[in-house]
Amino acid sequence: MSHWKIKLSLFLNYFVFAILLNSVGTVILQVQSTYGVSESSASVLEAFKDLSIAAVSFLIASYIARIGYRNSMLIGLGLVTLACLLMPSLGSFTMTKVLFAATGTSFALIKVSVYATIGIVTTDKKEHASFMNFIESFFMIGILTGYFIFSAFVDDLNPQSSSWLKVYYLLAAINAVAFLLLLSTSLDESAVKPAEAKPFMEDFIDMVKLAIKPLVLVFILSAFTYVLIEQSIMSWLPTYNSKVLSLPTTLSIQMASILAASTALGRFLAGIVLRKIHWFNVLALCLLAASVLVLIAIPLAKQGTGNEVTGWNDAPLAAFVFPIIGLFLAPIYPAINSVILSALPPRQHGPMSGLIVIFSALGGTTGSIITGHIFEAYDGQTAFYFSLIPITILLTALFFFNRLQKKPETAIEFTATGGH
């Protein structure tokens, strides 16, 4: 099997969905102007995206190996291409909800398949952790690219303009390219195919049994909390830049790219560092640094520049400093995902990937909705100070996750339940 080709396909799939999924922050800002919706109403877009991810993952995660990882990715790419083509012609807040529901549904198929496929194309735990960080860093590069793609279609002189919807024709074209590349790529999935066909409910029950293992429960809490932090910041940073720092709309979107760039850099560096230093030491230091940055960066927002901001050169210091938090949060998610997947036999990577996607989606929705309501009831600075609470919870959860992961009896439990 040509691993380089399937790896390239995985990178491109993640790149495409990074743009779509994380455009929610930009779209939250745009629908407030174009369709006249409030902050709390706009925050439900995260729910349409994340709850569809969670629901589909919940239903198909235990069954996806039978559908086939490659087939599942092709279905996801085809569905989201159609939704992108419909978005400009049926432009409305309702269609925007449909788009994110379709994107979430497709990504559930993509992410479970990608995570499970990593186990097929890597040979050991270190390579698994390294490749996981590299592919997640490429995801952040997709997010970074997305901010500039969307900002190119925004009309600052006419905030109510729907011209930004034309970006979806471009995204449909990129999706089509990803579909054709994957269609021409082969993947040997024989190692993860069930040895014998089992009823759907039996597969589903196996996934539920997996979820109640102590190590998996603590992992689920860690993944949920991390994504809550990440999405509460990422989805609301363009609005924070616009309403708190008073940046023009285009610049608000573009400067949110600093978060994606710092996260991409953090995950790329983590792909190197985690080969030499134990994951818990790296992640604990990163969370402490993130907390310090919040305490330093948010007060800077009160200072401003005293002048009208027109571009990057005269933007306030706060617009540059706070997004650097991505550098410190970056290694956490791919590292803990790799730890839990590496503890399982390959046949359980599909169901475990489903659990990862489900609880990550729930965390993202929770974070965005809480932040949106705090943003509307108080202000953006208070909303971002809120991140200190889940950061503390996450550090505590990772401490116990590390202790459980070291216990030899944990591995025995996983081995006993592995395979079909």
Number of strands: 0
Rg, Cα atoms, Å: 21 Å
Q: Quaternary status of these chains?
A: single chain
Major sheet characteristics: none
Tally of helical segments: 22
Helix-strand makeup class: mainly alpha
The appropriate CATH architecture is Up-down Bundle
- Which regions have little confidence, pLDDT < 50, spanning 5+ residues? 409-420
SSE run: HHHHHHHHHHHHHHHHHHHHHH
CATH fold naming? Growth Hormone, Chain: A
Approximate helicity band: over 70%
CATH domain class: Mainly Alpha
Name the average pLDDT: 80
* Overall body shape: globular
Strand content: under 5%
Number of domains: 1
Q: Could you give the distance between the termini?
A: 25 Å
Describe the structure.
The chain has 420 residues and is an all-alpha fold. Helices cover 75% and strands 0% of the residues. The chain has helices spanning 3-21, 24-34, 39-42, 44-60, 64-67, 69-86, 93-121, 125-151, 167-183, 200-211, 214-234, 237-243, 249-255, 257-273, 279-300, 317-321, 325-329, 332-342, 349-377, 380-385, 388-406, 408-417. The longest helix is centred in the N-terminal third of the chain and has 29 residues, at 93-121.
Lay out the secondary structure.
Blueprint: H1 3-21, H2 24-34, H3 39-42, H4 44-60, H5 64-67, H6 69-86, H7 93-121, H8 125-151, H9 167-183, H10 200-211, H11 214-234, H12 237-243, H13 249-255, H14 257-273, H15 279-300, H16 317-321, H17 325-329, H18 332-342, H19 349-377, H20 380-385, H21 388-406, H22 408-417
